[in-house]
Amino acid sequence: MLTVLLALVATSARAEGPRGLSFGAAVGGGVLSQNSCAQDTCTQRSFGRISAPNLRIGYRFSQRLALELHISGGVHTDNGDQRAFDALLASVKWWPYKRWWLSLGTGIGEELPPAFSGSGPVYMGAGTMLATGLEVYSRSSLVVDIHARATTGRLGIDPTATRENLALDGLIGLTWYPYASQ
User: Which tens digit of pLDDT belongs to each residue from 42-89?
Assistant: First the structure.
């Protein structure tokens, strides 16, 4: 909500910015809410998390519209074990105002051990993402933004059990347009 308010106050003109191919990365932190259900029993838990890696590649077709492919992730500790809730998502990004953007995506969500921690069970399922951000710095082909993101995943644990994850993250991102055209 604060991001939306800042965006409305800080921007009044229509979107302007670089176009073309883009590469991005972000880092931050947040909260993961987990609801696990097996037959008639459900368990809810919450974890703090570090939100990384968050990588994306995209193409900005106009000053107001881009398509992106995201690898979003975050690491949390569950009973002493490191776990990651990640997603591979395709999204549409839209700039309703000069520096404020909205993004909506869908794809695959997964919970697994982080790459650095070893082995453990892997759960996969449908994933979605909703994000909004404010570009706080823009210089030719580089953009720095702050954004809030909600990522969900409905993951199959086994044929009779599911896990629903909801991650809420605050992030600082950097986007590079190597072939920027204004």
Answer: 999 999 999 988 999 999 999 999 999 999 989 988 888 888 899 999
Of 85, 31, 84, 93, nearest to 56 by C-alpha is: 93
Q: What is the largest CA-CA distance in the chain?
A: 56
**20 and 179 Cβ atoms separated by less than 8 Å:** yes
H or E element that contains 180: none
Q: Of the candidates 93, 89, 20, 18, which has an alpha carbon nearest to the alpha carbon of residue 54?
A: 89
Classify 112 as helix, strand or coil: strand
For residue 159, whether the previous peptide bond is cis, meaning omega lies within 30 degrees of 0, is no
Tell me the whole-structure pTM to 2 decimals.
Answer: 0.85
With tokens 């759960």, the residue in question is: 123
